[in-house]
Amino acid sequence: MAVNDMVEKTVEFEKGIVKWQEVEDDTIASCDDIIRGTDNELVKTIAGIILADSARHKHVLGVINDTLNGTVTLTPEDLGQISGLLDTHIEIEKQAIEMAMTQYENSRNFVVRHLLTYLLEDEKKHYKMLSQLNDFKKHLYPYA
């Protein structure tokens, strides 16, 4: 691939990230409209969850752009300083997953099971993200 093609793809990628951030803004506004338009606590909760997730997505997309621009980096020291904390938190997430699974199995209420499924998937996501940070450690410290 020619250098000009790579530069163009990078520019297009960055434009795509910015456009995605705009879509997240639209999602946030839409969820806010839904929340203001209902008195139903379940609907408000689900819209609120999506709104908060979209705000986080927008932040992560900003970090992606910052990473591409070199202002966000990850060094062995960054992870080394918190290695034990990561290990501890991974164990906490395992406990949360087990609790969510148990509560799901013990519930028969459709709405409760729906919300527990959301929580279980979120806890699994947290566990995976922390495990990935541990994997980063292995790549940064190849002899660890």
Distance between the termini: 35 Å
Shape: flat
Biggest sheet features = none
Please trace the helix and strand order, writing H or E for each element: HHHHH
| Rg over C-alpha atoms, rounded to the nearest angstrom | 20 Å
Average pLDDT rating: 91
How many β-strand runs?
0
Strand content is: under 5%
Low-confidence stretches: none
Task: Sum this structure up briefly.
The protein is mostly helical and 144 residues long.
Question: What do you see in this structure?
Answer:
The protein has 144 residues and is an all-alpha fold. Helices cover 85% and strands 0% of the residues. The chain contains five helices and no strands. The chain has helices at residues 3-36, 41-68, 76-80, 83-106, 110-140. Helix 1 (3-36) packs antiparallel against helix 2 (41-68). The protein is flat, with a radius of gyration of 20 Å. The two termini are 35 Å apart. The mean pLDDT is 91.
